[in-house]
Amino acid sequence: MTAARPSTNTGVRVLLVSTNRERQPYPVVPNGLACVASALDAAGYRVEFLDLCFAKDPLGAAREASHKFAPDIIGVSVRNIDNSDAIALRHYTPEARDILRELRTSAPKAKIIAGGAAFGVAPEALFRDLGVDYAVAGDGERATVALVDALIDGRVPEAISGLVRAVRNEHEAEATVVFTPPGEEADLDSLPGPQLHRWIDLARYQRHGATIPIQTKRGCVYKCIYCTYRNVEGWGYRTRDPELVADEIAELKHKARVQHFDFVDSTFNSPPGHAIQVCEAIIRRKLGVQLDTTNFTPATALRLPRPVKSPSESRNMGFGRSGFSSSAGPVRLAKPWRKHSISPLGGSGVATPFTLRLVCAFTQAPPCTGSRSRKKGYRQLAHYSIQLFIFPVSLSSTKQSHASNISPPIIRASCFPPTRGQSSCPI
């Protein structure tokens, strides 16, 4: 069991519980709940964080933490509704209900608030199913603090963005569930940092194959029909100051000895200018860390400031190692490059201040527009030997990197949303 970690503040007690126990293909660090914990801590509440991911007896751990801490407020995070596996479907809400039952039994006077990504997808339905007192959908930091403030002051919480609550009418047999849509607060920089190392046993996650999450922005502008990011984080981008992103990485490296980070934005390289600024800020710190991202879109990689036509132009514009995906547009753009014999690992002397190693993950076949068969899709991929993706870098960063002999960060990327105008998802 991951030990519950209290904050140093005194006052009203808030127990936060992460119920996610899925460890396939790897466990996911509860970044969102850590953000809420830091916000409550900064507001003066005494916070204890219980992560049940590795608990052998999650019900017993929840019961013990609740008895020991005697919380006034309990916050429970539900990350996923199910595992999205049509063949071996598994629902996570029954386990969350069991944990909530233990918490309510152990602390009957405490108000229970639920949140997490799952509530961004189905706020009213989950509220009814789990039987909590309140729920928060969307960003949790400001909403949770405002809700706890109201509950402690004895006020009826009403005008709070993202709040889900039950309103009882004396003329109705059942309460009406009222959901106030999230406000999508644009200012992320004024929020306290997640401080993952304070609340979570990061070393244990890393031993089980997890990378440490870093968010450079929230929200998404794409309309992928299979994705719930816009439900969870909202439409449009709300970016963080690149220097604050670099500060967070530096803090985790120095205080928790973390070397391997994962950008968990909806799409790391969109908007592209912000992604470049983040990478430049990291290079200036000379952190020497490994950076991954599992969300990288070709929609902006080939449009900065316009499609690149040759390796020499790529060098002049300050691009790093270059390549194309197997989707139709990039494949057409790849043809002029073939005569230059660019190595998949970045040959021909191409400058590499930033490198993107592409991990292709096919669900069925490479979804190349215009392909008539799965075989043709694979032939296209093999023909071009494409393993990398264009990523732009400013010339100033290129010169700075070479002048100071800094080993630049390597960023691997996979899982791309579709480019605009395409119905399939390019790899």
Summarize the model shown:
The chain is an alpha/beta fold.
Class computed from helices, strands and strand pairing: alpha/beta
- List the domain count as a whole number: 2
Largest sheet: 8 strands, mixed
Could you give the count of β-strands? 15
Quaternary structure annotation: single chain
Proportion of residues in extended strands: 5-15%
CATH topology-level fold name of the largest domain: Transcription Regulator spoIIAA
The residue ranges in which pLDDT falls below 50 over 5 or more consecutive positions are 302-371, 374-427
Strand order of the largest sheet: 1-3-2-4-5-6-7-8
Task: Quickly count the helices.
Answer: 16
CATH architecture of the largest domain: 2-Layer Sandwich
Query: What level of helicity do the residues show?
Result: 25-40%
